[in-house]
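Risk register update: the risk of archive-format incompatibility is retired. Evidence:
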Amino acid sequence: MERRREFVAQLLEVDNLSKDFTLPRGLFGIRRDRLVVVDRVTFSVEEGRTLGIVGESGSGKSTIGKLIVGVHAPSSGAIRFRGAELTTRMLKHDSKCRREIQMIFQDIGSSLNPRKTTKQILEEPFAVHRLGSRRARQTMVSQILEKVDLPRAYLTKRPGSLSGGQRQRVCIARVLAVNPKLLVLDEPTSALDVSVQGKIIDLLTSLQGDLSMGYLFITHDLSLMRHVAEQTAVMYFGQLVEVAETETLFSEPLHPYTRTLLAAVPVIYDEEEAAKPPDESLGGEIPSLLRRPPGCTFHTRCKRSIAGVCDVEAPQLRECNSGHWVSCHWVQAIAEKRAQAIGASKDESEVLRHGCYQNGR
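Archived output:
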């Protein structure tokens, strides 16, 4: 029997989560296509720690975040928060759930009402959740603004008169108003200048340390992920293909897709260039979500593809090293062969370290 994934789930646990959308096609919309965006995804987020989800645009990262906060209803699977299963109805109508699970969306501009002042924007969460009196809310707004390093003078300003970094700080302050335990961050720095990105990341890191929040950090920027997440999950075509501690993922990537992403990360120093893995993909055409390839969804772009295996059978996410999960027939086959050749005295960690991608082959 295949070994089940074992993550310590203190805060959030996502189990075999899937989401598909039904799209009308053809004359009068008679024919309908099923668009699978998230396919049997499993992970967990621990209190005070950050799990990063990284992948190309369209891989389903943002959809996972929206499923967790109740914007979309899952097609199948379960979401558990602090051991209790969440439903879309609970996320929309249970005041405590709505307070404890918050999301910062990618589009800063559309997430703030341009007609309201910063003070009105920050007072709104207190009013919606009926927290504190009107007089007490003024004090709480000032305290939250101080947490995100904005002066009181900004209370009278509207979003249009704020810079991108200042608007993002207002977004962060708004979710902090209800004292959340889990924060879903969907590309929180993608619309910001590089100089501002660092300040926002420092702010988020500081707040997490002070408030012990769990973060689900969604981004396509691997360089950023290395500095913000303790654990990273790599997503491709709606599925997780590799999950590991962040430093392990960067130093010993196993899945060909992960190695392709890391090979594309810009570097400055020669030492960083020497440490980068070689590009593993053929650069083939990305499949359509409407016509998912059989077997492994990455086999059409992978030069490690095993004929008659990868194009037929979908790989399962399995633990190849301690805490290092990979969904790849080739990696799993190499591990098994090396284990037989080296012997039972060597654990799988040593097998993969010395066996996979030896000399870049």
